[in-house]
Amino acid sequence: MSAVRKPWIGGNWKCNGTRASVEALITSLNAATLPAPEAADIVISPPYLFLETVQARIRPEVHVAAQDCNAKGMGAYTGSISAEMLHEFGINTVILGHSERRDIFHETSEEVALKCKKALSLGLDIVPCIGEHREERLSGRTNEICFAQLAALAAQITDWSHVVVAYEPVWAIGTGLVATPAQAQETHAALRGWFREHVSAEVANTIRIVYGGSVSGANSAELARCPDVDGFLVGGASLKPEFAAICQNMAAARTH
Ligand SMILES: O=C(CO)COP(=O)(O)O
């Protein structure tokens, strides 16, 4: 029997936005037709400077997430933001270990896991990101890479009830090269199998594993029908009106 997992759709705005464009996005999302809050969790993740504005202005059923936090807390950590600060500002979710953080800012899986532990200790929901590079997929190492990233997380996480895992194959991010539904389903099922083997059947059945990488209004309906794809982490298309369509497509796929 498969568990009923509530769809989760995130919009990762990355390092994009001006006061004017953020204003326009808020206005557009507030006017859009979105799934009911019971049908899907919708989370948008603007850059830090815009968090407070977005939090204040976005419709209440849309949650707001940060794109990173440090593992340290408050202190002499120039340039970083602590989980305590996010918590104080009412930002209850944080994306961690995005491949851009890993590849451009050299974060290791161990550092990502420590950030996850810190954010969870403050009561935040976390969205750790995992995924393989193109050459790793081509050499048949997708599962090996993703499982190692999960194992690093599992060394620091005991309670998985506040975790949404984002599977984002690096070769699909910002490239227009979306994973096929068969590729997405195969890897998501493998990740769920990893949880069954290394954590518990309960966590395997309940944890939401979302797909990221060139998700669009056009391809989201088909991906949403994959039984182990519980939602999406959307980059470029989350800056456009089609984000609402992606949310609708995901929720519709789970409405029987
Ligand atoms: O990195 C992503 C979301 O975190 C995906 O980005 P794109 O949707 O632009 O490929």
UniProtKB/TrEMBL annotation:
Its EC number is 5.3.1.1. One of its GO terms (biological process) is glyceraldehyde-3-phosphate biosynthetic process. It catalyses: D-glyceraldehyde 3-phosphate = dihydroxyacetone phosphate. It is an enzyme of class 5 (isomerase). GO terms for cellular component: cytosol. The keyword Hydrolase does not apply. Keywords: Gluconeogenesis, Glycolysis, Isomerase. Gene3D superfamilies: Aldolase class I. Signal peptide: none annotated. GO terms for molecular function: triose-phosphate isomerase activity. Pathway: Carbohydrate biosynthesis; gluconeogenesis; Carbohydrate degradation; glycolysis; D-glyceraldehyde 3-phosphate from glycerone phosphate: step 1/1. It comes from the Eukaryota. Pfam families: TIM. Homodimer. Belongs to the triosephosphate isomerase family. This is Triosephosphate isomerase. It comes from Paratrimastix pyriformis. The gene is TPI.
